[in-house]
Amino acid sequence: MHYERLNVANWSRWRPQMLRLETQTYEPSRQDTSDTLEKIVCNEKGVNLVAIDDQQLAGFCLGAPLEAFAHVRGPAEDPFRGNATVLYAADTLVDDHYRRQGIGRELKTRQIDAARSEGFQQISGRNRAGLADAMWQLNSSLGARAIHIIEKDYQDGIEPDLCIYYRIALTVPLKRQNNS
Ligand SMILES: CC(C)(COP(=O)(O)OP(=O)(O)OC[C@H]1O[C@@H](n2cnc3c(N)ncnc32)[C@H](O)[C@@H]1OP(=O)(O)O)[C@@H](O)C(=O)NCCC(=O)NCCS
Questions:
Q1: 99 CB less than 6 Å from ligand 1?
Q2: What tens digit of pLDDT does each residue of 92-129 get?
Q3: DSSP assignment, residue 79?
Q4: N or C, where is the chain less crowded by C-beta within 10 Å?
């Protein structure tokens, strides 16, 4: 598996496969549009990565400064918004066929390491209770702590309609697991 940074230079290369995976993976209320993804990927302070198997996109992990997400519940109420110290982890996804091989963990570990070395002090994010339990397990193992629970934000009739807003402090270097 090959990992590389995703940004304005290679966005058009990976965009079609990213959009296909978004549609394939998420219920409509969690799918991001091409415009939304582009704003995150092309944010010059973003920390975005792709996992590539030959020409195939196996997964990706997106994040940009919290200030870019004022319209999203969680970031909207976050007292650290405006300090330019928090990376908001917007989306992490691994294609079904590549799951449980350590790719999600590698993407997140690389994102956390890059965020720390690029001056962020924390990562925050949202995980939908139930549907994103695997992601919450992964984030928890990387130091995420729940800050609050957001109720009834998705409003799509799927229960539970709850999401966990969490933080990962970047003051302590991560202990890496060996997944190779
Ligand atoms: C969450 C996701 C990215 C994990 O990717 P992955 O490559 O399969 O994850 P890894 O193999 O690196 O596993 C890392 C950890 O994730 C957790 N995990 C992964 N799959 C899991 C599952 N089916 N059930 C419970 N925990 C799981 C475990 O904590 C695992 O650690 P372990 O291997 O030490 O037990 C993947 O399941 C996914 O794309 N899910 C759908 C998209 C999504 O909901 N994203 C979150 C948006 S909020």
A1: yes
A2: 999 999 999 999 999 999 999 999 999 999 999 999 99
A3: T
A4: C
